[in-house]
Design brief:
CATH superfamily of the domain at 58-208 in chain A: Tetracycline Repressor, domain 2
CATH topology of the domain at 58-208 in chain A: Tetracycline Repressor, domain 2
Strand content of chain A: under 5%
Shape of chain A: globular
Keywords (chains A, B): DNA-binding, Transcription, Transcription regulation
Oligomer: homodimer
Number of strands of chain A: 0
Protein name (chains A, B): TetR/AcrR family transcriptional regulator
GO molecular function (chains A, B): DNA-binding transcription factor activity; transcription cis-regulatory region binding
CATH class of the domain at 58-208 in chain A: Mainly Alpha
Largest interface: A-B, 47 and 47 residues
Pfam families (chains A, B): TetR_C_4, TetR_N
Order of helices and strands of chain A: HHHHHHHHHHH
Helix content of chain A: over 70%
Distance between the termini of chain A: 51 Å
Chain lengths: ~220, ~220
DNA sequence: TTAAGATAATCAAACGTTTGTTTGATTATC
DNA sequence: GATAATCAAACAAACGTTTGATTATCTTAA
């Protein structure tokens, strides 16, 4: 489906409001007011409120998919470099598109209420992401740089889960690390840096060869 | 605040519906129908829908707090045993109270819309949890069993985030591990076992002394 | 123990808003 | 002159909440 400029603007406003208040708590009148359009325009362009959020997922899923393909073309680097690049890229991606990410988290919490279209888009995207990560790990395993037993789905879940958790408990994070008085940009930078170093360490510890790895193989 | 049997039943029904559909998408008529009461009873007992969810958080926060205190009394064990016990206990706790946990996740996503009462209860609970974890780690560090540099808040965030992520993407998890045809109980058992072994490994790798730890100290 | 009186619980019905959506006329663009 | 975009207004349905009457439960004094 192709969307014109006006439709994309409506989608963008809806995304921001859905992220902040949730789908049900956001009225079409909220959206039309923020987007400076008439209430009837949402139905006119998308058909219904449900179709609007479907369009949102359609557009953003396509963008993320394209970005994933890009990442997969970063060859000529060592497996460990590629792992670090993938971790950094994923953290950057989520922080850049926090609103959409927030909407995804909300929708994931109601698997039943969700339209099949959204479910399929999300599952597809997550699987694509997992395959990319697996291919990098397997490469390192073939070269004998990584240990033979790596639970990639769980590592990926840990990565995403941690970033999500941090994002949805921002103020708690700032309290714990005593950075409440920093600007919002500085707080985010703190979180991003912390996440990147944290996961560089975790991935290193979880995929580097174990002492007995050469013996058992 | 004390609540009678009827109130606790309403809270329990509301909890289940809030978890499944979200606060805004759940109407008082939904709740009263499921709880087999008159619509006016919610206002009669709690005052309003907002006060109802506050009561829910009040009750559950108290329960969780009490359970945390219990956990802290498990002395006479080695620090590593206590870490494992804490990880297992936390995973069990979340899986047991999935509904409430789901509601917490939803509320965390709208920090602005939330009433201060809920925010404070959640922050308090999270801090209490963090302090418990820190005390165990510090004990291990004093004994020289754990490395000196452990980022406890990040480890805790990773633990919670991963469990959350897994719970909110259950069907994706089952697809990845090919256990869609198992019963729901078996699927949950699979997830719990996987989580526990995963985090035993992560914690081990992240807190055991590094090779150069004795040199730098 | 019982009758009377007070308090608590329950109910159907109605309240005024807000909801998503549609209509039909008007304006802009091609 | 046709198609697309925009608008104020209206629509029925659903919302949280209140009302006022009715029933159940408890309290208290004879």
């Amino acid at each position: 489906m192709e969307y014109n400029q006006k439709q994309l603007q409506i989608i963008s406003v809806a995304e921001r409001l859905f992220a902040a208040k949730g789908f049900s708590a956001t009225s079409i009148r909220d959206i039309s007011q923020e987007a400076d359009i008439n209430v009837s325009m949402v139905s006119y362009y998308f058909g219904s409120k449900d179709k609007l959020i479907e369009a949102l997922f359609e557009v953003r899923a396509r963008e993320f998919g394209a970005r994933l393909d890009e990442l997969l073309r970063d060859l000529g680097l060592s497996p460990m470099q590629r792992v670090n690049l993938m971790v950094d890229g994923m953290i950057n991606r989520i922080f850049e598109k926090q609103c959409f990410h927030n909407v995804v988290l909300r929708e994931q919490l109601s698997p039943d209420r969700r339209t099949p279209i959204i479910s399929e888009l999300l599952t597809e995207l997550k699987l694509k992401n997992l395959r990319a990560m697996e291919s990098i790990i397997h490469e390192g395993q073939k070269l004998g740089i990584f240990r033979s037993e790596v639970d990639v789905p769980m590592l990926s879940t840990t990565l995403y889960g941690t970033v999500n958790q941090l994002l949805s408990t921002k103020s708690y994070y700032c309290t714990v690390y005593g950075i409440q008085d920093l600007s919002e940009e500085e707080q985010e930078a703190h979180m991003i840096a912390k996440l990147k170093s944290h996961f560089k360490k975790i991935f290193q510890e979880m995929i580097k060869p174990e002492l007995n790895d050469s013996i058992t193989s």
